[in-house]
Amino acid sequence: MLRQLIDNILDMLLPRRCLRCGKILGVAGYLCDKCAEEINFITPPYCQKCGNPLHEENIRLCAGCSGGQKRFYRLARSAMTYDDSDKNLIIAFKFFDHTENASLLAAMLKVAGKDIFDAGVDLLIPVPLHYTRLIKRRYNQSSLLADKLSKMVNVPVENFALIRHRKTRPQVEFSGRARVINVKNAFSVKHPEKIKGKRVVLIDDVMTTGSTMKESAQALRKAGAVSVDVLTVARVL
Q: Of the residues 58, 72, 80, 229, which has the fewest C-beta atoms closer than 10 A?
């Protein structure tokens, strides 16, 4: 009763708003109906390995995966596309301290990663920031996502085994091959005993070319991870 009373008072003083457009919500939730309908979720058909959307129902793999392109992760999944309609949720979360968006984005990760979690997962590992960027930003958005997701899927988080030992420029500053070079050999595992024999899921906000995930996954496999899957809120198509 007391908890309900407190919630009612808070709703009057600080009404719940849509995290995307700011509209006051009539019922508890994260998004208004209009914004929920406008988000471009990634749904089948998509590549069964890398998760890239496909245009035909009867195709299982994209051209890259069917052509034998080497990937250090087992499966990759993303909840939505990273475009003008959807990216504001992530930008606000990542750069403007809207950490309240983490719960919604983690819920999206849970849905997008259903087949990964059904197969079995031992650890969630957020893609790390270099310590200089962490000091500047004050939080790692991927760690916040992993912490929220951990409670939803009952899988522990390991925040300190994988490190970014080399300072890199933001990937958004580069394109194509330059992105690959920027993060080459930037990651290592500080505590391999925490990784060896584990089925690991890498957590991040956005996948662009996949260079960051490739380097992270490679470091984890070298440290003895049985498998590495990739789960991001959004991906650039």
A: 58
